[in-house]
User: What shape does this take?
Amino acid sequence: MKILIVNAGSSSLKYQLIDMVQETTVAKGLIERIGIPGSKLKQTVGEDKYQVEMPMNDHIEASKQMLAALMHAEHGVLRSMDEIGAVGHRVVHGGEHFTASSIIDDDCIKAIEENSQFAPLHNPANLMGIKATKTVMPNTPMVAVFDTAFHQTMPAKSFLYGFPMDYYSRLKVRRYGFHGTSHRFVSEQAAQFLGKDIKDLRIITCHLGNGSSLSAVHGGKSVDTSMGLTPLEGVLMGTRSGSVDPASLQFIMNHEGMDINQMVDVLNKKSGLLGVSGLSSDMRDVEDAAAKGNKHAQIALDILHNGIRKYIGAYAAVMGGVDAVVFTAGIGENSPELREEVIKDFEYMGMKLDPQKNKVRGVLADISAADSKVKVLVIPTNEELVIARDTLELVGESQG
Ligand code: ADP
Assistant: This one.
């Protein structure tokens, strides 16, 4: 069976067609500027790159163009839409409603709508993608896979903030956590790689990309994670500040004459690597500048390294020890410098890198020293594959 994975943004739509027999990607595409002049679609099939520019006023038109590209006589991979067995949608916020992936029906759509209050930029966009693909593929079963679902196993002591309880009971303000498909995938891969039952492992997963989060995975279940009600909490990110003293906002807003929306915008879009370095949100730029002696770039890196180290120490404490630390996503997979800085001086916890093995980029590898008690692994994430596997499983179940 072939499964189509869709990740819809407010003006974009990413897609990937996966053949589930070999679990291989058959085609990948990105549609940008939906509803904005200059809409275009780019599709990659192996070495072949296909690009077309045409007006696409909404997600329905974009979905039609996605299907047209997949069925294109020269650049496509499908003869008919019927070859797509199911569609898996990435949905950011499942709130407390979704503890796992779900077949998309009216109730599911309603629950995603209700959770839009927690992810006002993402869930409505994800829904546009769902509704558009349902319009153009009305008979194809669809599944929603949530970024938050994996973290629903967290105990109350990890997911509750120190607010008056009423804010949780009435408003559902709590830590939800994100990147769940990635934390789940790499922790399962780690167990498999180590030849151990995940039930016996305490794993700290470090998903470090433009957005970053760490998770404590005990016995295969998320017991704590660094992102919160929104993806702003936790370590320093590309443009996001990560955790700050909440009262510092009042101080800054009073001095700068900003309202809360302007303040949160600064925290989300102008802070992090970009804000501290004053240069770029891209880790490669910041690492290059620091290597050339730029002090602000270096301090941005130091804050990030130190923040990750603190979470690793904290999560080892939460789980009563740690068996493996996993690095994944753009930075985690590709920055040996960051991995070295984060893991150094952790020998007292039995954790040591092998500098030679640590040179790898973007491939699955054990980078720990031979005498390291804690395994340190690099594991490329594959969120699309998790979505495809969940979709296949749920559609299989629903069709008996
Ligand atoms: P997203 O969260 O958007 O999915 P990615 O997981 O692709 O992001 O990660 C993007 C980050 O990975 C960027 O900061 C980028 O600079 C960083 N990155 C990619 N390649 C390298 C590299 N070779 N060295 C250091 N950082 C890298």
